[in-house]
C-alpha cells in the first residue's frame, strides 16, 4: 500500500470516561469529545489524503499552556477548547481532571502518555506554572539555551526528537525539523506531549483468512486492498439518524475499544462526519444501543503516519489571540514587566497507526513552540468495504476516532 493510494482519515479522540465509570467530571469529558470532533471536522475539511490526529494530545498541551496564559488569552483558550460550554468546568476542574487522566494512563499497561517542557534558561519559570506542569501533567521540565552561541536549530530538533522517539517506542521519528527552530534565539518554550498505545485484539483475526477484496472509494469505483475477516459476536448498533451503523472491537489488556462507524451509503462519509456532533458519545443511552450480535465482519488492514501543523486549524476554531502578538503568556516566567511575554508560534503534530490481525498500535506527538512576541439468527452483515469512521475508546468513551476513505 503506497501512501498515495491510501486515504485513511483517522482521528484520535480524547480519552473519555463515562461519568459513571471514571473519576473524571462529565463536563470535562464532554469538552474533550466536543473539541475532538470539532478538530476532526476542521482538519478533515481541508485534507483529503490520509490523516490521523490525536485531539487528546493536542488538547493536553494547549491546556497546559493555558495555565501560563492570562486575561483574554486564557479565556480564549478555555473557550476554544469548549470547556466553557459545559457546566461546572472551571480552570481548577481541568487541572484536576488532567491529573486524574495522566495518573490513570501511568497505571495502564497499554497506554502511555508523557509531557516535557524545554524552557529557555534566560528566565525563571514561575512557581505556579511549574507546580501545575509537574503536579497535574507529570511533566518533566528542562532548562536549556536557545542561543546561537550554544546550539543550532539542528541540535535542538535532534534533541527533542530523540525524547519523542523514546517515548513513542520509535514510532514517531523526526517530529520536528530544524526549520521549525529557524528563529532559535527567540524560542522561549517548547511543550511536548506523546501518547503511545499498543494492544492485541481480544478476538484476533486469522491472518490465513486475510485476502484482497474491493474497497469502494465512491459509488462505483473500487480499489483492491487486504481485508481481515471474522465471524463472531460483536457489539453492533444501528444509527438510523446518522444513516450509519457501528461495531465495537475490544482489546486484550486495555479497556480501550475501537468503534467503526460505517455510513450506509458508499458516499456517506462527509454527511456522517458533519452529523457526528448530534450524538452524545459519552451517554449511557448510546452505549445501550450496542447489542451483542453474531456478525460476519470484514475490515481492511491499514498503516500510515501523518503530520500536520495545526496552527491554522486552531485559529479557524477561534484560537486567534494565543498565536498573535497580543498574546499574554506572562504566567509562564517570573517577571515584573512584560519582557518575558511569549506567543504560541507552532503546534506540530505527528501520528502513527497500524491496524492488523493482531491488534492496534497508535501513537502521537504534539510539539508546541512558543516564541517571544515581536517581539440476530441471520448473521448481521458488516462489510467495511467503503469509507467509514472508527473510534478507539477507553472506559466506554471515545479515545481514538478515524475515517477510512480509500487505499
Ligand atoms: C482508571 O480509571 C478507571 C475508571 O475509573 C479505574 O477503574 C481504574 O482503576 C483506573 N486505573 C488507574 C491505574 O488509576
Ligand atoms: C455542578 O456542581 C453542583 C455543586 O457542586 C452540583 O450540585 C451539580 O450537580 C453539578 N452539575 C453537574 C452537571 O455536574
Ligand atoms: C528510552 O530511554 C530509556 C532510558 O534511557 C531506556 O531505558 C529505553 O530503552 C528507551 N526506549 C527506547 C524505545 O529507546
Ligand atoms: C536573533 O539572532 C538574529 C541573527 O542571528 C538577530 O538578528 C536577532 O536580533 C536575534 N534576536 C534576539 C531576540 O536576540
Ligand atoms: C441515507 O443513506 C441512503 C443510502 O443508504 C440514502 O439513499 C439516503 O439519502 C441517506 N439519507 C440521508 C438523510 O442522508
Ligand atoms: C503586560 O501585557 C498585558 C497584555 O498585553 C497587558 O494587559 C499588561 O498591562 C502588561 N503589563 C505591564 C506591566 O506592562
Automatic annotation (TrEMBL):
PROSITE patterns: SERPIN (PS00284). Pfam families: Serpin. Gene3D superfamilies: Alpha-1-antitrypsin, domain 1 (2.30.39.10), Antithrombin, subunit I, domain 2 (3.30.497.10). InterPro entries: Serpin_CS, Serpin_dom, Serpin_fam, Serpin_sf, Serpin_sf_1, Serpin_sf_2. GO terms for molecular function: serine-type endopeptidase inhibitor activity. One of its GO terms (cellular component) is extracellular space. Keywords: Protease inhibitor, Serine protease inhibitor, Signal. Belongs to the serpin family. Residues 1-20 form the signal peptide. The keyword Signal applies. This is Serpin domain-containing protein. SUPFAM superfamilies: Serpins.
Amino acid at each position: 500500500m503506497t501512501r498515495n493510494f491510501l486515504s485513511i482519515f483517522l482521528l484520535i479522540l480524547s480519552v473519555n470516561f463515562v461519568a459513571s465509570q471514571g473519576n473524571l467530571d462529565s463536563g470535562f469529558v464532554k469538552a474533550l469529545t466536543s473539541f475532538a470532533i470539532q478538530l476532526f471536522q476542521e482538519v478533515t475539511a481541508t485534507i483529503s489524503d490520509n490523516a490521523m490526529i490525536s485531539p487528546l494530545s493536542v488538547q493536553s498541551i494547549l491546556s497546559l499552556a493555558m495555565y501560563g496564559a492570562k486575561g483574554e488569552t486564557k479565556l480564549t483558550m478555555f473557550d476554544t477548547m469548549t470547556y466553557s460550554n459545559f457546566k461546572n468546568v472551571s480552570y481548577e476542574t481541568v487541572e484536576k481532571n488532567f491529573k486524574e487522566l495522566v495518573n490513570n494512563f501511568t497505571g495502564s499497561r497499554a497506554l502511555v502518555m508523557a509531557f516535557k517542557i524545554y524552557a529557555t534558561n534566560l528566565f525563571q519559570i514561575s512557581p505556579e506554572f511549574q507546580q501545575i506542569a509537574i503536579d497535574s501533567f507529570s511533566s518533566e521540565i528542562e532548562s536549556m539555551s536557545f542561543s546561537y552561541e550554544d546550539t543550532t536549530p539542528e541540535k535542538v530538533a535532534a534533541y527533542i526528537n530523540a525524547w519523542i522517539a523514546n517515548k513513542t517506542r520509535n514510532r514517531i521519528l523526526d517530529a520536528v525539523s530544524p526549520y521549525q527552530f529557524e528563529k532559535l534565539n527567540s524560542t522561549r518554550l517548547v511543550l511536548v506531549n506523546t501518547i503511545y498505545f499498543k494492544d492485541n485484539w481480544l478476538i484476533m483475526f486469522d491472518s490465513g483468512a486475510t485476502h484482497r477484496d474491493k474497497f469502494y472509494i465512491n459509488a462505483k469505483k473500487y480499489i483492491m486492498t487486504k481485508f481481515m475477516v471474522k465471524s463472531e459476536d460483536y457489539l453492533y448498533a444501528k444509527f438510523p439518524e446518522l444513516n450509519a451503523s457501528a461495531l465495537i472491537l475490544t482489546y486484550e489488556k486495555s479497556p480501550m475499544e475501537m468503534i467503526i462507524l460505517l455510513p450506509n451509503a458508499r458516499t456517506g462519509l462527509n454527511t456522517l462526519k458533519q452529523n457526528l456532533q448530534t450524538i452524545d458519545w459519552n451517554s449511557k443511552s448510546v452505549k445501550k444501543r450496542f447489542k451483542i450480535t453474531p456478525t460476519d465482519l470484514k475490515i481492511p488492514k491499514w498503516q500510515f503516519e501523518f503530520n500536520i501543523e495545526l496552527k491554522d486549524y486552531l485559529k479557524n476554531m477561534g484560537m486567534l489571540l494565543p498565536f498573535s502578538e497580543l498574546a499574554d503568556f506572562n504566567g509562564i516566567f517570573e517577571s515584573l514587566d512584560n519582557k518575558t511575554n511569549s506567543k504560541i508560534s507552532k503546534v506540530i503534530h505527528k501520528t502513527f497507526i497500524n491496524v492488523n490481525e493482531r491488534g492496534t498500535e497508535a501513537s502521537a506527538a504534539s510539539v508546541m513552540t512558543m516564541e517571544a512576541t515581536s517581539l440476530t439468527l441471520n448473521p448481521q452483515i458488516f462489510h467495511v468495504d467503503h469509507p467509514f469512521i472508527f473510534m478507539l475508546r477507553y472506559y466506554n468513551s471515545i479515545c481514538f476516532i478515524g475515517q477510512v476513505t480509500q487505499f
